[in-house]
Design goal:
12% strand, 5 strands, 5-stranded mixed beta sheet
Amino acid sequence: RLGHLAAIVRLAPDRADAWDALRAESPRPPTADSRPLAAARRDVPRGFREERSTHFVILTDADATWTLGVSRRLEQAHRDFESFIRRLDLEAVPLRHRLVCIVFRDKRAFETFARERDGVAAAWAHGYYNPARDRIVLYQPPSGGDRFAEARAIAAIHHEVTHQLSFHRLVQDRTVQYPLWLNEGLATSFEAAADD
């Protein structure tokens, strides 16, 4: 029913009755189980653990402290996105399920996964959002005080979750081919290189 209502809203955004029904039926907090999560569980290597926050499920083999930081940053990005929606007075579809994020401890494992599971050449990236599989994939920067690498990793979290939220909340529509400057400009505007 939620998918049906979201489709109505996407095709007829002026249907107040569909918006009201969608809001009334949306779980609070969003449910954890979803097709993207089931697929991610099958795709990640053995030994990954599952961490949950209010709006996200993280599958990871990364350091517990880094993973906690990722979870906190995902939730902060979600709050920032909500604020953005309110400031622009946009009507946005509620989340139907928690969003999926995969975090690797090792960059090489991240690159292999990106290439073999998602068909993404990610050697240059700190992370990516795969809209077809509906998941964010990131890696933990190497420890040792490389502040630039850590700042880029934090910015990537905010950037990629903005892509994911834009499509889930129907601020952007998956069926529309947006200009690259608009898609990437929106996500880049949410980047933050530090927690403050």
